[in-house]
Amino acid sequence: MSEATSAETAGAETASSEIVVQTRALSKVYRDFWGRQKVRALKSLDLEVRKGEVFGLLGPNGSGKTTTIKLLLGLLFPTEGEALLFGKDSSDVSKNERLGYLPEESYLYRFLNAEETLDFYGRLFDMPADVREQRIDELIKMVGLDRARKRQLQEYSKGMTRRIGLAQALINNPELILLDEPTSGLDPIGTREMKDMILRLKAEGKTVVMCSHLLADVQDVCDRIAILHQGELKELGRVDTLLTVADVTQLRAKGLTGECQQELRDVIARHHGELLEMNNPTTTLEDLFLKIVRDSEARPGRRASIEGADDNKTGGVATAD
């Protein structure tokens, strides 16, 4: 084998190892008692989630988000296609050692306290007692429940329950974390702390896949998103790219007079203004999401058409501080 061929093979293997989650033509059909098709929940979904990124799965109710998560977990079997985690089929239970999951509704034993809850789940992973004890202390402090570590979970608020649920999902120090509505039930401070924890997990090299109806939360933490509607993938890409309004140019300048605010680069330079920023303004994830859903309803079976995607268009909007 030549050196060039060896390099190409090594590069392909490295790229493959970076893919943590992959779906290929993944489909799921729910059938009735007689085996007749009741609903097609997911249609030929192709996704790739790479190591170290925060990936958002968005869609209205009934769009296939929960079905996708359950297929990845191996709780459902696909009708067609396949779901791979760490290069293994989702039905392979060995993947669970590297996986953490926070469901939309945490199913925890309400008569246990926080320490007992995490100790129980740590034992399921056969963690040594000393490692388990240290991990429990770290997680309780991380999710902000240090003062409530001895209280039974039945006394917890919804927000506190979400926190201990996240700690439970992280007890085995997983490489991949699946989060279903992670900020559900949290107040604004708790929501901010949850998002900070997600970003902290990313900084530690973890891969996070999250479902959420709170689009602002997704916009704050996700690197890439997939938008589903009626079981079909309608849009996929980086958040910053999808939200960029490509046919409008926005200028931010400092120290300009009112006259200079209407001018472009050469005028700014001529009047000794300081150009702070020149880029494409962005829309909001909420506006993008609603547009894709409405476009999907108007043109079923087709990918959404995003206006302003032509990078060759130009326009100008100038603002000054």
UniProtKB/TrEMBL annotation:
Q: What is its EC number?
A: 3.6.3.-
Q: Which domain of life is it from?
A: Bacteria
UniProt enzyme class: hydrolase
Q: What Pfam families does its record include?
A: ABC_tran
Question: Which UniProt keywords are listed?
Answer: ATP-binding, Hydrolase, Nucleotide-binding, Transport
Matches recorded under InterPro entries: AAA+_ATPase, ABC_transporter-like_ATP-bd, ABC_Transporter_VariousFunc, P-loop_NTPase
Keyword match Transport: yes
Location of the ABC transporter domain? 21-255
Annotated region Disordered: where? 301-321
Checking Gene3D superfamilies in the record gives: P-loop containing nucleotide triphosphate hydrolases (3.40.50.300)
Q: Does the keyword Zinc apply?
A: no
GO terms assigned for molecular function = ATP binding; ATP hydrolysis activity
Give the protein's recorded name.
Putative ABC transporter ATP-binding protein YxlF
Gene name, per UniProt, is: yxlF_2
